[in-house]
Write the structure tokens for this entry.
Amino acid sequence: MSRSILFRTRLGVMLSLALLPAARAQSQDSDSVAEAARRAREQKKAKANKPAKVITDDTFEVKKEDVQSATAEVPKVPGAPSANAPTTSGANPTPAPNANAANPSGAAKDERLKKELADLQERLKTALTDLDLLRRENRLDSDTFYSKPDYGSDAAGKQKLEDQKQRIADKQQEVENMKAKIADLEKSLGSSSSPQP
């Protein structure tokens, strides 16, 4: 019997010695998991305290390709030269040289009108791009405003949307006025470049 007690005691000691490193590793693992959780909470707090990045015109980088693709989608103004189309002699009629020699003040007037027309067309292109950007900004702000559960009580957000709608209407009126001026200039150029009998 003493042999079996001695055997059991030795077996117990050997098992405890074998399991002792595993128990130490397990306690270290639980300590490291707790430490990792603490670090994660601290990082989360640090991120929450960090101010959000505000995107402005100065910090917003626009690639040249984006601007070109936006202006390529601008609707064509009747009579305006296309940026992609090559010019041909039939597409851009000019008065005959002898007509200009007979009426030098008319040639100067035509040149002035052409320069004014080209300037106005460029300004129209810019205004159409601005109008498109205003509409997109309004759609985004509108989606943000109406996605709030209590949007009815957000007076500042509603006022911002109303201001944007007014700016869009003003820009639209500006575009319409430019289109009318371009049409008038084209008529003036068409009538002045036709040969008089």
User: Anything to note?
Assistant: Residues 83-102 have pLDDT under 50 and may be disordered. DSSP finds five helices and no strands in the chain. The helical segments are 2-49, 64-72, 97-102, 104-147, 155-193.
